[in-house]
Request: fold
Amino acid sequence: MCAMSPSRVLSEVYGQAECVRNSYLKSFSDQIVADIYGNAEQITKHVLSKKESQRISFDLTIDNLVTSKWFGYPLMILLLVGVFWLTIEGANFPSELLATVLFAFQDQLTLWFQWAGAPNWVHGVLVLGVYRTLAWVIAVMLPPMAIFFPLFTLLEDSGYLPRIAFNLDHIFKRAKACGKQSLTMCMGFGCNAAGVTSCRIIDSPRERLIAILTNNFVPCNGRFPTLIAITSIFIGGAIASYSGLINALVISTIILLGVAVTLSVSWILSMTILKGEPSSLVLELPSYRRPKIGAVIYRSMLDRTLFVLRRSIIVAAPAGAVIWILANVYIGDQNILSAVAHILNPFGQLIGLDGFILMAFILGLPANEIVLPILIMSYLSTGSLQDYSSLEELRNVLVSNGWTWLTAINVMLFSLLHWPCATTLLTTYKETGSKKWVFLSFLIPTLIGFTACFIFTQVVQFFGLV
Amino acid sequence: MILSAEKKNNQFTVALAGNPNVGKSTIFNALTGLHQHTGNWPGKTVDNAQGIYEHQKKSFLIVDLPGTYSLLAHTVEEQIARDYLCFANPDVTVVVLDATCLERNLNLALQVFEITSKVIVCLNLMDEATKKDLVIDVPSLERELGVPVVATAARQGKGLFELRKKIFQVASGSLQPSPRQIKYSSDVENALKELLPLVENIANNTLSPRWIALRLLDGDQSFLRSLSNYLDIDQASFQFQDWEESKCAQ
Amino acid sequence: MRDAERINSLSDLSLGSDCQIVSLELSGLLRRRILDLGIVPGTLIRCIRRGPSGDPTAYMVRGTLIALRSEDAAQIFVRKLSNGEECV
Reply:
């Protein structure tokens, strides 16, 4: 035997095992599983005793409610709205506070740079570019994430989330996808990159890819500030007395539109390039547990909030430098930012935007939360990010640059339907290991975004509604 | 490929196995505190968390295996967990069980017992089981399984000291579990008898011949692929194509 | 044949009724997943609830709730238990 290479031995043994296997009628792999469970059953019978149980009926009672025909969906919507309301409202104050503190520190930084005799451009790139962008990203992103992720983890730990998948599976089944995709979408509300990673919970590779490619259609924390600001200025603000309610309705409509696009794209993908094995669902519905608040906060902050924040900082810092340079390097009497915007303008107009908006979205590739600041900065051409606390001021800037309600709706549409941010693209590459899928995850939303805005604009302009 | 645990000398490695959703990560966090780092398993998009703690002046490296229902390797997670247990040779394997659904969880424990004898069963979520009016006779479970059973409620921090103690005892060899082996139905046992003499040529000391024979009966190719990697076999000379074909004969 | 001995598919089971798995006609990854969760021939299983639209259905198996789609459950064959027999 020693003379033989181990590979020979192994493949020979495999051949002999094949013979043994074929000499029996039963499938051994099934029998082995059944036998293991048989043993487990025996052991359990010896050691486990049940009293008349109250608790199981407790689980059943909750399930009767949360998965019921009449209360199941309203409860889900209520929870969704509740989580968003808490996130948006709760983040307001800390965001303002952070902005005040961080921007005050910027003045201190400027003083230090002057004291050290640093050249103007160094101060420009580092303070007005990098620091200001970082301060904006942290002020805008950190508070909502620090609220959203713990809330999400709370729902996760309580055992409620699988019930969402249970309730919604039939809709995903029609799109030939997996019900667990609804959970990855929930995660996407927090951060699309985190949403893409969470697609690992889907067993079938085909359905996992569908979930990854469509995750971007749920607006993430980075896009919500843009959506909320624009709604408040152009839609909710127009009907002052109900503005809060109207804003909530508009945002919900946008989310529903995103869900509709997700389902349609999932369906188209499984009819075309991702055809294959029929989809299925094996979903465990665990018992409800009371979550440990401390552990939830600790884990969601460490694993999710700080993780996502760190990644955004890594991409936002260089972006800030680049944007400052673009805004402060002049070709003739125009800075590069305006020059590029002029080139993009005809194309932007075609889809109801303008050159500056399109450029802001392109420059916002590193992180979606810097789209609006870049836009304001370019409109004002002051060459650094502005912190506009007053919506009225913001409205004046936008209107004086030719914004109408059509522009506002198009910006919201395009914000929902455009390429994923760089972090999400990178994560998609890590998860799929293929450039092809990354490219598709870029192409699909972009095409849909351009088409949607183009059609909407042309229809509105044709009927002369603006 | 999988043996990337950064083990130092004089350090014990402890593998943490269990079904998804049994509080495995709670136990991992409770044991290691902040002394942990996470990454991916080499070449896989599966989280790999490792952490360190000290007990009795000994250092323990804990490797949190992916949560799986079985080790029969139908998913990447199962393959990682199985390969780690088979080939990385941890000093102790802790199988975390959900006390509220013991039967389902024992499926995994029994499979782990077939691979290694240095096992501890951690019966977690005891608090939840009590709430559900389930009573588990821990001493008799210990007798049935042949391994130390530690009842814990990790979220309340209960039972963790006992767990550390048992891990230490098994790692240092002062406690030697003899885990219960699965009794298969007669067909499987007969087929095993036919295969065992052949397999004994392949198995070295670390791997149980019975386990390899079972995987051969399973027709589990992913395990044989891992095994051939482990035995340092040149992939090219290994005829997987033939296997695929012969499999169709079933 | 007695009524209780008739073989049905799991998807035909009415809410609250108990049965015993006879065979699984599923294939591939789904079959393995379902086997690994302890749904093997001989297992006792109870139909607990349906989703708001009537699909999927949650079954109690070995103390845990597992939801399956009706198409998949239709490929699992079961024997209905008469009232006297113990379940779950």
